[in-house]
Amino acid sequence: MLLNYLWKTWRRTLIHIEVIGLDPPCNKCNELLKNSKTAVAQAGIEAEVVKKWTLSEEIREKYGLLLSPALAIEGVVVAQGKVYKPERIAEILKG
Prior knowledge:
The protein has a single domain, classed as Glutaredoxin. The longest helix is centred in the middle third of the chain and has 17 residues, at about 25-45. By secondary structure, it is of the alpha+beta class. It contains four helices and four strands, in the order αβαβαββα.
């Protein structure tokens, strides 16, 4: 499974997490960003959590158009149009 492979790779390096949403950010985007940072702390992993604008050229070229907010972990979109709770994000991060 892709997530298991990514998990094995992630344990050796810093995990890159992108919260993709509107700018200025809406409440859901802010909540997903906060939940992602909380999940990283709960999972006890090293990760970089960054906020990206859904309509930026970089994001459109990389992922296409996404429902906002979206969550991408190591370049894989794991959620669109949803605000995952920290526990769910931590579960994904742990594999």
